[in-house]
Amino acid sequence: MEKTIDENKQGEALILDTKEGNSKKLFIESYGCQMNFSDSEIVASILSDQGFNTTQQLEEADLVLVNTCSIRDKAEQTVRKRLEKYNAVKRINPNMKVGVLGCMAERLKSKFLEEEKIVDLVVGPDAYKDLPNLLAEVDEGRDAINVILSKEETYGDISPVRLNSNGVTAFVSITRGCDNMCTFCVVPFTRGRERSRDPQSIIEEINDLWSKGYREVTLLGQNVDSYLWYGGGLKKDFEKASDFQRATAVNFSNLLELCAKAQAKMRFRFSTSNPQDMTLDVIETMAKFENICNYIHLPVQSGSDRILKAMNRLHTRQEYFELIDNIKRLIPDCAISQDMISGFPTETEKDHQDTLSLMEYVKYDFGFMFAYSERPGTLAARKLEDDIPEDVKKRRLNEIIQLQQKHSLMRTQKHVGKIEEILIEKESKRSDQHWSGRNSQNTVVVFPKEHYKVGEFVNVKINDCTSATLIGQAVNYSQNN
Ligand code: SAH
Ligand code: F3S
């Protein structure tokens, strides 16, 4: 699992169930975080009502949309390369329109239309409902752009079309935007202020997924633990809420409980947790409900108090350890993963050693590790010189990755000999005789298919492992089917 989430991953062309009568063809691909993949499902749903069915053939598309990521420079370069590819296709099919969605659209705004002559359409993450109007403008021969960030938009009323789905696991967005302002991060600028989605619409979406055969839902947000519903509005305006709104407010642990009870046999996961917002309530709720998976993605970014402060991460190393201790006390077999950044401005060898020693303390199950990439407009870019040479960033990153690999193997080895419940998701990539699924801790498990089927919960005896995968043999059905 020691790889970056986004820029190494090929954006996947996505398929959608075709709607009868739709004659236009949409090719949509996504880069970056899970939220982008989830947003593309909202976009496909909006465009399905406008006569578009999706296609996996770029060459036959009437409209090409790319949902983009700005988190690191490399992610943006990947999208630029894709635009070159679309340009080549457009030379053969001049009627094809090209649109840029998501964080790069928001960051570069109209500059995109100037820089990339082939782009007809630029749409920010809060403006997807405006797509029908924007497309009408494009049809009339004008470039179209909407990058307005919203205080309310959560797309709670849109029923996403599941793209490229295994039919078993799905993402459900619960918050949008982020108020944290970590100094290295472009997300607050590209996705706007934090707002939470109406819990009723979340539960309705979950119930609908269950009825369609889905068995696992990951609740998504930039910072899920900060979820707060009090009848609408921005998180930061909660202080102005009425007494009634306060009394009936739903926080993240309440939401987890609502989900776990609404579908008692559905598995729930969530991502991402910022340590500063994760409360004991959330850990207790996880411990209380068997169907909330024992896995927390808990990015820390650095093990040095000085760097954490410079990053505007609002917790200390010690407070992080206390959180880890509480998780391990209340949920002893909980898996924990990290995001880490090497070479943040001013990072010394001592700071780097603090990161390695923090990792030794936690012994993460897996991690997503990155070299610092300066992002225009962020506080770090404005106030701090990007002063760590590339080769030093890379060397430190490699040391972090090496240590994580060692810990990942130690962690997977602990599963060997146990019988664990696996939800079957798909055929193993390596063998058509094996299923692939995940245990509660989010580790991939492969085992011979026998008579079992996709979407079933199976008890699997774990016989062997690598640092990323468990290998086993089914024992019987789990009682959770
Ligand atoms: N809360 C978000 C975090 C978004 S960014 C979420 O839901 O995942 C994902 C990770 O990218 C961060 O945790 C951080 O480790 C990394 N990252 C963000 N900005 C970065 C930058 N400027 N350079 C390198 N890595 C960065
Ligand atoms: Fe970015 Fe920090 Fe929010 S990493 S998404 S500003 S929690």
CATH class type of the largest domain: Alpha Beta
Which regions contain 5 or more consecutive residues with pLDDT less than 50?
1-16
Task: Using the CA coordinates, give the radius of gyration.
Answer: 22 Å
CATH homologous superfamily heading of the largest domain: Response regulator
**How many strand units?**
22
Cα distance, first to last residue? 29 Å
Total of domains:
4
**Residue-averaged pLDDT:** 94
Describe the biggest sheet? Answer: 7 strands, mixed
- The outline comes out as globular
Per DSSP, what share of the residues sits in E-state strands of 2 or more residues? 15-25%
Write the layout of secondary structure elements.
Blueprint: E1 12-13, E2 24-30, H1 34-48, E3 52-54, E4 63-68, H2 73-92, E5 97-102, H3 103-108, H4 111-115, E6 121-123, H5 131-139, E7 144-146, E8 169-173, E9 175-176, H6 187-191, E10 195-196, H7 199-211, E11 216-220, E12 228-229, H8 243-247, E13 250-251, H9 252-262, E14 267-271, H10 280-288, E15 295-297, H11 305-310, H12 317-330, E16 335-342, H13 349-362, E17 366-371, H14 379-383, H15 390-413, E18 419-427, E19 434-438, E20 444-448, E21 457-465, E22 469-477
Parallel strand pairs: 2-3, 2-4, 4-5, 5-6, 6-7, 8-11, 11-14, 15-16, 16-17, 20-22
Antiparallel strand pairs: 1-2, 9-10, 12-13, 18-19, 18-21, 19-20, 21-22
Helix pairs in contact: 7-9, 9-10, 10-12, 13-15
Bound molecules: S-adenosyl-L-homocysteine and FE3-S4 cluster (F3S).
